[in-house]
Amino acid sequence: MIEKILCKIALQGPLSFPEYLEIALYDPISGYYAGSSQRIGRNGDFYTSVSVGPLFGQLLARHFLNWWENNHRPRRWRILEIGANDGRLAEDIITALHAVSPPAWQSLEYAILEPLPGLRAAQQDRLKNLPAKLRVSASLTDLQQTSLPGIAFANEVLDALPFHLVKRMDQAWQELYVNADSCDRLFFSPSPIAPDSSLAARLAKLGEKFPDGYQTEVRTNFGAFLESVSSCLLEGSLIFFDYGFAAPEYYEDSRSNGTLRTYSNHQAGENPLLRPGEADITAHVDFTDLAMAARKLDFHPTGFSTQGSFLTHLARPMMLNNELSDPKAIARFQSLTHPAHLGSRFHVIEFSSKGESPSLIKQRLAL
Ligand SMILES: C[S@@+](CC[C@H](N)C(=O)[O-])C[C@H]1O[C@@H](n2cnc3c(N)ncnc32)[C@H](O)[C@@H]1O
Q: Which residue among 108, 128, 242, 258 has its CA within the 20 to 30 Å range from the CA of 271?
């Protein structure tokens, strides 16, 4: 991996941080995510809500079923999961839908967008015996040609999309590039930002009120990502679960080192240049920026809440039916929803192709 990065720097000069992340995380042979579907969970580097057990998928299945019911039970509909790791969440959702509503399951096509061949194989293997019309694709082209009403969603994928690193120096923004010294050690070198670039346009929105030394992350890829995903739906919802903040909180004065983290063996780190390909590299999501990109595509934010309150609302019918009464189920529910676990760190944002955003949601997102 390091040889690949050094070779690229030797050929083309310092790499922008998104270029570096494309190799470190997504190189199809030695990228972090290409290596194994076991990166997530007890024996991996970090947990996600999927690691907690099937309850997350069971609750999502109820939300998707509500969408189907509220949208006149379309005869054919699609759930598109983006970045499905080993297929476990897909398995939990399809199994729950099959159990709760055979008619909704009958008319469902469950699609997965997975760019990495190793993960696609793991998903196909895991889901081979499941009762659903399943499509696992490397690209969205075929799904775009046969778009259906439905839902596209992702858990912890937005934070894994490549991002730029920027730093205030001499009262101006500079972009941090990845460079190599004569001993092949990687280091950051600052570079001016082209005024006509998409990065400069994003930074213009952030303004200039940051002190020298302030470092943060900026994504310029939300628009293209949302456009490709939403074009697989005739109409419907986009739902994202992730850690992050609305812009005013994201760019608080106190967050002067940004939110970039690495994860390896359940330990968080701050140096993304240390062992490329061996650790996850991530940054929080700016939900305001995401919402602005979605609005350009006529998808309007209809919900923005903590994961805790979103899932607690969905769990009410299960609680009333005593389906969440055994100690294991209660412990799982608490892991997903309690503020000290995943409940307040994670947010859920939902966009709809129909209707307007409630003013409270616009206010929460500072739109
Ligand atoms: C942190 S993992 C989350 C996996 C899974 N959703 C879960 O909750 O366990 C991030 C995943 O996002 C996927 N990913 C990143 N960029 C993507 C893209 N443009 N399209 C689809 N998946 C992507 C990666 O392959 C990786 O599997």
A: 242
